[in-house]
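Subject: design request, 338 residues
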């Protein structure tokens, strides 16, 4: 959910002209790395679950929901920048072009060491994304955009990128200022083999792993990672529960990476392995996934989200008034575990 467009990348490279060549190469290979990570996640899930429960089998069956997932991730990975500008109603264009004009206003420059900056970035990015996701479930206008992601009635690895360009633009606009203030570390570049260099490598590895883990969290895996999933890192079971159809489930577990935020703010919940396989996914009132035909899938991506968003905006001020989270629970299945 980080709005890091090409303009922001160009600004970063321009401000760090002394950056080593190997880091530049890593940035240039970012898009291919995403594809490699995606393919690895598919193979990893297939190895653990077998063909019958895999996302690959879901693709083979070509259900409407999975076709919509495939279209969404294609829009994310393919070089369709100008189309994204149009579909986001210009928001992505504004983010890309204005990010290069912000200058060095990052608050990280007040932290003396690169390692401290990296730790600060990890925690703050995670914290901001938690609250952004929670607002998407409490503000009706934002939920009208975000419900497209929740409309998947079958989880697959591709569901992780099930977002429209308009949703990306609105999320990016709301996150633009706080994330500019938390731009990349600004301390002097670390020497090879130093502790600071190790922190940079760890940070890069952490971001790659979180991306890989989000693919797994949208897969058909149901593991809770044991104590790691309960206290440290979001697990497939935890996020699958968030995707359940009932609001008594998906108004829980908002984190994308660190479980600490759901723990601190009272939105953490889990269930046992048997219960998670029986919980229906998607939306009870689903305007998407209505047809598996090509025209039906295209309509669900390029037209229906805009109509749903417009219908909510017509409510005026009420569309932006936060609604309380649904605190109803099903004790036999859902366990807050504070």
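Subject: RE: design request

Done. Sequence follows.
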């Amino acid at each position: 959910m980080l709005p890091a467009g090409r303009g922001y990348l160009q600004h970063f490279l321009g401000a760090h002209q002394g950056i080593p060549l190997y880091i530049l190469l890593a940035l240039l290979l970012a898009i291919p790395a995403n594809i490699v990570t995606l393919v690895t996640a598919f193979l990893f899930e297939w190895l653990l679950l077998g063909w019958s429960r895999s996302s690959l089998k879901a693709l083979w069956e070509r259900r409407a929901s999975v076709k919509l997932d495939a279209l969404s991730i294609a829009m994310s990975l393919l070089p369709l920048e100008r189309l994204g500008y149009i579909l986001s109603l210009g928001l992505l264009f504004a983010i890309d072009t204005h990010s290069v004009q912000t200058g060095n206003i990052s608050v990280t420059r007040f932290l003396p060491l690169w390692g401290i900056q990296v730790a600060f970035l990890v925690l703050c990015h995670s914290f901001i994304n938690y609250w952004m996701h929670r607002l998407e479930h409490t503000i009706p206008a934002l939920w009208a955009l975000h419900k497209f992601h929740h409309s998947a009635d079958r989880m697959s690895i591709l569901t992780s990128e099930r977002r429209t360009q308009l949703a990306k633009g609105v999320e990016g606009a709301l996150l633009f200022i706080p994330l500019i203030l938390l731009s990349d570390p600004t301390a002097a570049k670390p020497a090879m083999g130093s502790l600071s260099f190790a922190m940079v490598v760890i940070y890069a590895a952490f971001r790659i792993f979180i991306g890989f883990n989000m693919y797994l969290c949208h897969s058909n895996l149901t593991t809770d990672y044991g104590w790691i999933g309960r206290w440290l890192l979001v697990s497939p079971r935890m996020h699958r529960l968030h995707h359940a159809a009932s609001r008594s489930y998906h108004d829980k577990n908002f984190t994308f990476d660190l479980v600490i935020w759901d723990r601190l703010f009272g939105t953490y919940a889990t269930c046992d392995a048997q219960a998670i396989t029986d919980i229906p996914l998607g939306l009870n009132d689903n305007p998407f996934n209505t047809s598996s035909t090509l025209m039906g899938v295209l309509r669900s991506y390029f037209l229906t989200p805009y109509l749903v968003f417009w219908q909510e905006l017509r409510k005026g001020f009420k569309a932006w008034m936060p609604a309380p989270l649904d605190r109803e629970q099903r004790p036999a299945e859902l366990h807050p575990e504070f």
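The two ends are 27 Å apart (CA to CA).
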